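Backbone shape codes:
===
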Amino acid sequence: MTEEFHRIRRLPPYVFAEVNKAKALARAAREDIIDLGMGNPDSATPPHIVAKLVEAVQDPRSHRYSVSRGIPGLRRALAAYYARRFDVKLDPESEVIATLGSKEGLANLAAAISSPGDTILVPNPSYPIHQFGFIIAGASVRSVPATPDDDMLRALDRAVRHSVPRPTALIVNFPSNPTAYVADLAFYREIVAFARKHDLFILSDLAYAEIYFDGNPPPSVLQIDGAKDITVEFTSMSKTYSMPGWRMGFAAGNPRLIAALARMKSYLDYGAFTPIQVAATAALNGPQDCVADMRSLYKERRDILIKGLGAAGWDIPNPAGSMFAWAPIPERFAHMGSVEFAKLLLAKAKVAVAPGIGFGEHGDGHVRIAFVENAHRLRQAIRNIKPFLAQDNAGPAEPESEPEPGPEPGPETVTAQA
């Protein structure tokens, strides 16, 4: 009786644990740690959304069981959002479902549509639930490049030709967590054509649709003709309206997949607390100035961070979307890997970041930096990092000894981090 349960054995150790432990110890010692590790929005939820929650919670009828699929008004509001933002028509009854955040929706749809032995195509690196939702369901994951370009398309072609059994679904996530890559409609046309040709479902994670910086709103894959025949897309209130703790998200698209998710959820939950759904409806239907303000805030933070770290000697690609910078580990520290580099940065510069390996083994040459501190704190982080990069003893130039050979990391070497 000492062995782990079967599904737990498929989940790797928490790779962020070492960094989180070091962070906790530093804070216990009253050190001032600037935490840019977790993608946890720090801004308050807009007041008109909170006010609607307070109003709704005063009604005793709202304290009863809710509706697993989401109250009708909320589903209509999400359909209206798709119509005005993407010019995509959705039936609120059959093509929209509310979820407890996009993460829950992805995991439950994975359980609904996959069986042990199925093959799923997932970008690497990517948000951990993209692969672990399917791994928990018993499926196998085949990694493909995370870049929205010909490299991904060629890898998809190889995967379909050489995977046994043939893949059944493909995950896409743009703007991406953690890489901040953004796709355009031309790429989505290629993906949809490929998936239709090879009888693949597409599961699109569009949680960062409203966080973009360079004047080009990220598109939805559902804008492509025929995409709805094979696609479900997940969105979330967490980042758009700074509502991460409210746990409110959606799935939209193919009626067959939406029905499968609805059936699964009907056995597992009664939906989000009704006042939360009412407030989410008010957010989608109400004034959108707060979304523009949020976007401007993240752009300001991005510009401070990228420019400041560049001046400090750390060149980081300028993200066009998401609330993250995907930062290559400086060459001098590259041999350390992302976990040891993140621990060293925490110890020497008092700045916490997320190790890239937490998002897949192909992320180990990077760390993810979240724009979740105010401008003053970001400038302080830059001031701390600059001498860290300049110090000769910040880290050995070469490994002290060659490590013992070990097994190559597989696709199940990451774990969840927001």
Observations:
- DSSP finds 13 helices and twelve strands in the chain.
- Residues 396-415 have pLDDT under 50 and may be disordered.
